[in-house]
Amino acid sequence: MKFTHIDGKNKGEIMLYALSTCVWCKKTKRLLRELGIAYDYVFVDLLDDDEKENAKKELERWNPCGSFPTIVVNDKESIVGYDVQKIKELINNE
Amino acid sequence: MNDALQYQKQIESQYEKLKKEAEAAGYRLNPDIEFTRELVDGLLTNEKRYGYWACPCRLADGVERNDRDIICPCDYRDADLTEHGACYCGLYVSQVVIHEKISAGSIPERRPPKEKRDKIGEKPATSLNSSLDYPV
Ligand code: SF4
User: N or C terminus of chain B with fewer C-beta within 10 Å?
Assistant: First the structure.
């Protein structure tokens, strides 16, 4: 699955599952950028069928309803939806 | 006129049309115009991609039969408006949100996961008058 990397401060491995048409995903990207945090994102709606299935399975491990945006942090925890407070807290990560 | 400009015009006219239709039916679009235009852009993108207005904030299957509940306005709009003051995407908002100038936030997903939707779909359709004790 091809994630796109956005440069910034390293606050751990931050993987964003997003949709290219979703406004909350856009807001999430904007906020991460404002915070200057490095992250990787994938637009699941733009993947080909096989990759889309893989992405859905991977996403559902973290967020069983498979909704967007979902951020997976350090392969340990997830932030579901545009949760401003939790996203801002990422800045405190080592 | 270049393509980008023409597309902006299309978003604008679709937005106006949607606003009129919503208001005529007693609904309100999100007053944050930039936000709402981005959603209209998403709806038009999905129309081109799938042939119907799949919800921009959900992953469409691409087979209309499987996406019927998330074609805008989706089956979850009214319940979300009642409970959260906005639909899942924030395209439609309640009067309270408008009058108190609260901005609509991201809300939890109400759509059941796929296995649950499949189970609901398997149930035989109840006949129209089967649950009525007497004719109405
Ligand atoms: S959540 Fe809102 S924008 Fe999305 S399909 Fe439902 S009514 Fe339309």
Answer: C
